[in-house]
Write a structure and sequence with these properties.
This protein has 154 residues and is mainly α. The chain folds into two domains: 59 residues; 72 residues, lambda repressor-like DNA-binding domains (434 Repressor (Amino-terminal Domain), Orthogonal Bundle), CATH 1.10.260.40. The protein contains seven helices and no strands. The chain starts with a helix and ends with a helix.
């Protein structure tokens, strides 16, 4: 005959599992609903972000006349190429530090621009564009003037 204590123990464990399952079933159901709701919200956020991105791209392309007038007052949009910047500096026969002095930035900034680690700001792009039309002699003269001004202030 089976040990009554073992049978009783097994029956108590079975009933306890059944009760625990009944108690946790409600929480499992609620948790599944919450997960489904969160997933739906994430999909909605992703869709809204895509719509915002599309709208901002269309907004950039479809400027109104007033926006275009504002853009013209700020000057033309400047493109930047790291290789062209390096070529321009070499064409002028300047070191990165000298080229930076002409622009009004540090030599490290020019180094990072040329290596694609950073991009110049709009004001700096204007300064770079202003140097585009000068030759070696004028660049040397401007540099000498800057260095002369630096010595005069010291």
């Amino acid at each position: 005959m089976p040990n009554i204590a073992a049978v009783l123990k097994d029956e108590i464990a079975r009933i306890a599992r059944k009760e625990a399952r009944a108690q946790t079933a409600e929480f499992k159901k609620a948790s599944a609903q919450y997960r489904a709701h969160i997933a739906a919200l994430r999909r909605r956020i992703d869709e809204l972000e895509r719509q915002v991105k599309r709208a901002s791209k269309q907004g950039v392309k479809g400027n109104s006349a007033a926006d275009e007038a504002d853009d013209e007052s700020q000057g033309p949009a400047r493109r930047f190429s790291a290789t062209r910047l390096a070529a321009q500096r070499r064409k002028l026969g300047l070191s990165a530090a000298d080229f930076a002095a002409l622009i009004g930035v540090s030599g490290q900034s020019v180094y990072k621009w040329e290596h694609g680690e950073a991009r110049p700001r709009a004001r700096q792009l204007e300064a770079i564009a202003a140097l585009r039309g000068i030759g070696k002699r004028e660049a040397a003269a401007r540099l000498a003037q800057l260095q002369g001004d630096g010595e005069a202030t010291q």
